[in-house]
Amino acid sequence: MLRVREGDEAAFRELFKRHAAALVGFVDRFFYNRAVSEEVVQEVFLKVYRARKKYQPKSKFTTWLYTIATRASLNELRRGVFKQKRRELGEGDGATPAVDDEVAGRRLRDRVAKILAGLPENQRAAFLLVRFGGRSYGEVAQILGLSESAVKSQIFRATDSVRRGLEEDGSGK
Fold this sequence. Notes:
The termini are far apart. This protein is 72% helix and 0% strand. The chain is mainly alpha-helical. Residues 83-95 have low confidence and may be disordered. It has 2 domains: 1-85, Rna Polymerase Sigma Factor, Chain: A (Orthogonal Bundle), CATH 1.10.1740.10; 94-173, Arc Repressor Mutant, subunit A, CATH 1.10.10.
């Protein structure tokens, strides 16, 4: 990023190649819609490029990047522009166990997505950053502007909400 700050466009392309796929995977946990996730990640990299001259390496680059991605995702959700599309899943035609397993997996994923969508923003963001973003509690604290103990509390509450939500519909058994 220091090279990008100095105007090295090849370094920016390298940052994009190195981090875009993981970032799309992370952002997709907010939306469960690949097209929306890719748009948000493009917006994130546009913000990175625009802020390049002001970049100060106060923390790891990925912490800064995930801060931007988390805020962009939450802003997109707040704007209400994005409407989460619900897939209509059939009961499965019973053709093969693999098809039934795939349908069951999609149902579980959709149920978890619905539960996560109902969480308060900080709980959802902390949970996603740790569980799917691979960030440490310290990094998440920096990203969300919270203490580490607050992050641990947010993750505990989110995990408990997911567990209870799955138990309520029988998916957690």
